[in-house]
Amino acid sequence: MSSILAPLILLLLADLLVGDYRLFTSINIELSNFILDFTCIYLTPTLFTTFYFLALAVLYTSKNEDDKFYGAISLVNGSVSYGVGSAIKVLVARPRPFQILDGVRIIGVWHTSTYSFPSTTTMLVFGLTLPILFRKSKYGFILAALSYLVGFSVIYTGYHFPSDVIAGILLSAPVAVFTIAIGRLVVDLIRKF
C-alpha cells in the first residue's frame, strides 16, 4: 500500500503548497518537450495496457483460486470506479483546465467529457490496479507506478488538474475495498449453494 500512499502524499503536498492551477501550469506548459509528449500520449497508455493484461494472464493461469478472484475483481472494480467517477463528475461539474485557463496545451487524442473532477481515467487505472496490488504486490507495484504515470499524463496533456488526479486516486481506494468485499460475499454465497 505504501506504493500508492507515498506518491499520493507527495502529489497532495505539492498541490497544497504550490496551488492547483500553478502546479497544473508547471506540468502542462513549463515541462513541455517532445520526449514527454511522446511518453504521455503513446508510451504510458501502451505500457499500462500491456502490463495490465500480462498481470491478468498471470492471475488467470494461476492454480490459486484467490489469484483468479482478484483478476476478476480487478476488471469489475475498474468499471465500477469509472462509473462512480463519471457520476461524481456530473454532480461537481468542474470545467476542464483548457476551458478556464489561458495558454493550456492540449495534446493527444483523448476523449473528453465536459467535466474534469475527478479524473475518470485515473479512477479507471487505479481501479484496475488496486485489487492486483492487494493480491500480488510485485505486479501491483509496477501497475501502481504506471497508474501514476497515467495520472501525470492526463495533467501533462491538458485534460485534468492535479486535484482531479488526486481525487481519482483517493476515490478509487474505497471503491476497491467495497468491490472486493461484495465479491467475497458473492463467492461465499455461490459456494454455499
Structure description:
This protein has one domain: Vanadium-containing Chloroperoxidase, domain 1, CATH 1.20.144. The protein is built from eight helices and no strands. It has helices spanning 2-18, 20-30, 34-61, 65-92, 97-100, 120-135, 137-156, 162-192. The longest helix has 31 residues, at 162-192. The mean pLDDT is 88.
Name its key features:
Vanadium-containing Chloroperoxidase, domain 1
Reconstruct the topology from this structure.
Elements: H1 2-18, H2 20-30, H3 34-61, H4 65-92, H5 97-100, H6 120-135, H7 137-156, H8 162-192
Helix pairs in contact: 1-2, 1-8, 3-4, 3-6, 3-7, 4-6, 4-8, 6-7, 6-8
Q: Given the helix and strand composition, which structural class is it?
A: mainly alpha
Sheet bearing the most strands, described?
A: none
Strand content: under 5%
Number of strands: 0
Average pLDDT reading:
88
**CATH arch. level architecture:** Up-down Bundle
